Amino acid sequence: MDRLAYFWFRSQAELALHKHKATAFQDHFSEVMEAVHGTDFIRVRPAGKVGDRKCDGYLKSTDTVFQVYAPARVELKSWLNKVDDDFAGAKAQWSTMRSWTFVHNQHDGLPADVTQALLKLKTDHADLAIEQWPPTRLLELTEDLPEDRLVRLFGHPPLEREMRVLDRSDVAEAVAGLALESVSWLPDAADLPVVDPRKLDYNQLSEYPRRLVTAGIAQARMVEGYFDNNPDPTLRDRAGMLMKVEWLNLQRQGVTGDEAFHVLYERVAGNVQGSREATASLALLAYLFESCDIFANPPADWTGTAA
C-alpha cells in the first residue's frame, strides 16, 4: 500500500473511534463489520414495540449477538444496567445465540464494577462465549482490509506517488476550482520547508496527522508558486482567511488536535472524487498549516507538549 495512503487510513480509523458517540459509533461499528465480514454480518435496527431485541448486529458464522454502547459520558449505574439488561434480553430473544460481545467506546478501559459484571456473566453462562471489545478492536479489524474496502469506509486517500507529481492545476481545483496553466514541479530535498515540530506538538496532532502534514509540506513551494502566479492577487489571502475563520470556529467549539485537522481537510476536500484531488487538498492544507493561516504557533517560551 502507498505509504501516504496508509497514514491516511490509520488516521481516519483512529479519529472515527474517538469522534463518534452513541448511534454514530454504532453505525461505524456496523460499517467496519460489513467491510470485514460481508454478508456474514447482519446489521440490526430497532422496529416497532420490540425494538432491536437487544441486538445491534449478528454474525452468522459464530451466532454472535453484538451489543454496542458508546455514551458521551460514563455513568456507572447506566453501564451496569446496560450490561445486565441487554445480555438477559439477548439470551431470552435469540435462541441461536452462541456468543455475546459487548462493544464499547472507552479508550482508557472499563470501570472496575463493569468489568466484574462482565466476568460474572462469563462464569454464570459458561455455555456461551462472552467478550468485551474496546475501540482498539475495531482499529485492528481494519488493519488488513484491502484498499478498496478502506476507501468505502474512509474515502479516497492522498497518495505519495501523486504528491510527487502534483502541479498548479491540481492546486487550482483545491482552491475553488480556478484554472491555471499546468506547471509541473518536483522538489529537491534541500529546498523543502521544514514543519516546526513544536507547532505539531503544540496543536496536539498525533502520529498519523503529523505524518500527513509533513508529507504535504513537500509541495508547499509549488502551492506558493500557484498563488504567486495567479492573476487574482487576493486569492491567497482569501483562501487563507476562509480557512482561518473555519479554524477559529472550531476553537470556539472546543474542537482541537486531530479532529480539527480532519474537519479542515474535509472543508478543503469536500468535492474530492479520487486520490489525485485528495492529495492536492492535503498539499493545500499543509501549506496553510506551514504558513500560519491555521492552527496556533507556540509562544517563543513554550516548552510543553500540548496547547
TrEMBL record:
<protein>
    <recommendedName>
        <fullName>ABC-three component systems C-terminal domain-containing protein</fullName>
    </recommendedName>
</protein>
<dbReference type="Pfam" id="PF20275">
    <property type="entry name" value="CTD10"/>
</dbReference>
<feature type="domain" description="ABC-three component systems C-terminal">
    <location>
        <begin position="198"/>
        <end position="296"/>
    </location>
</feature>
<dbReference type="InterPro" id="IPR046919">
    <property type="entry name" value="ABC-3C_CTD10"/>
</dbReference>
